[in-house]
Amino acid sequence: MSTTTTTPAVRVERASSPVESFLARHAAMIPSFAAVVILVLLLAGAEAFLRGDFITARNMSALLLDNAYLLILAVGMTFVILTAGIDLSVGSVMAFTGILGAQLLVSGIPVWIAVPAMLAGGAAIGLLIGVLVQYFNVQPFIASLAGLFLARGLAFVVSLSSIRVEEPGVLWLQQTRFRLGDWYLTPTGIIALLTVAVAVFVLHLTRFGRTIYAIGGNEQSARLMGLNVARTKVAAYVISGFCGGLAGLALTAYSGAGYPRNGIGTELDAIAAVVIGGTLLTGGRGYVLGSLIGVLVFGTIKTIISFMGAEQAWMQIIVGALLLLFIVVQRVIVARSERRR
Questions:
Q1: Which of 8, 130, 152, 298 has its CA 20 to 30 A from that of 136?
Q2: What are the TM regions of this chain, as residue ranges (predicted)?
């Protein structure tokens, strides 16, 4: 009786190229790299079209000056989106805290009391949203939508009209220029950059930051690892609300007044900037520095359209196209990650 032996088939895997290996190891950074490329192309294209009149010290300094409040909002939004959540209330929180601060200052309340009250008001609304999401199992979209209506309603309760701010301590934030040649930086710009720096430190060098990423990656696994999911998720919304209050201060200093209708639609601008910057809407992947790039892309598009004298509707069209592009890129990255598991 003869026996037949079969030789198992040997699977030969194709050696990956250095480029493929790099992309596999740094897949989460691809959207952020793409945002940098788009920013460079926008700047180069505008410079060529306007014949050297776009990339100037004055215009580049104004880019941060005009978008400081949006950058602060985007930082807070990054924390929330990294947990796979969303915060639709930040624009209304910015309006509420701005009009609240203006009303307090006009009423004779010292600036050292009014400013902390603005920040505390934003954080309180963030806390409410976080509690609804975590402890009452309300979807982040619905909970933050409730926060949006609450904050906007409170803004109209404080005042139905604009309130002019004449407090020197607040106006100093916008009117002061720290110059280096033709370049300049305002205190509001410094506050925005410091907010980014603190967020980078917290997200990448602390246990809290690692927990944020773990929750967005897989919340159930984060619980099994013994991480404090509940406290961290609530804290993410508190941070977003606090940033909304800080943005309210920056916008009040920028405009010189508080107005209850400020910030309508700004929450969508912040979300767009974060997504363009490479943070995945599904959570767990993204960088605050990417959100910074996203805000700069957003601000550059707005500046180019203003220079060209085109209709502002093109702003929504271009940003919408970029969002579609980046969402497709994100889906490709997620699909590749799932195939490798």
A1: 152
A2: 28-50, 70-97, 109-133, 140-163, 183-203, 234-257, 263-281, 288-307, 313-334
